[in-house]
Specification:
Mean pLDDT: 95
Shape: globular
Distance between the termini: 30 Å
Order of helices and strands: HHEEHH
Helix content: 55-70%
Number of strands: 2
Largest sheet: 2 strands, antiparallel
Structural class: alpha+beta
Low-confidence stretches: none
Strand order of the largest sheet: 1-2
Length: 68
């Protein structure tokens, strides 16, 4: 959910998070599911293509922790 993403990314503006989520959705890496509730609720999940990037991102994180 957006609030969880925002908390996990301190110092990143909500506008930046929103724009990146829109881009990831456009590229079909995430799915956005809006619930008709009050207050409104939106959840994000990875698509098959997004999940396929997991190993690559983990390798980059490991490299960064080791060498940067």
């Amino acid at each position: 959910r957006f609030g969880e993403l925002s908390e996990a990314l301190p110092g990143v503006s909500s506008r930046t998070i929103t724009k990146k989520l829109e881009l990831l959705e456009t590229k079909k890496l995430i799915l956005r599911k809006a619930f008709l509730e009050k207050p409104p609720r939106v959840e994000y999940s990875l698509t098959k293509e997004g999940l396929a990037l997991h190993a690559i991102v983990e390798s980059m994180r490991t490299y960064g922790e080791k060498y940067l």
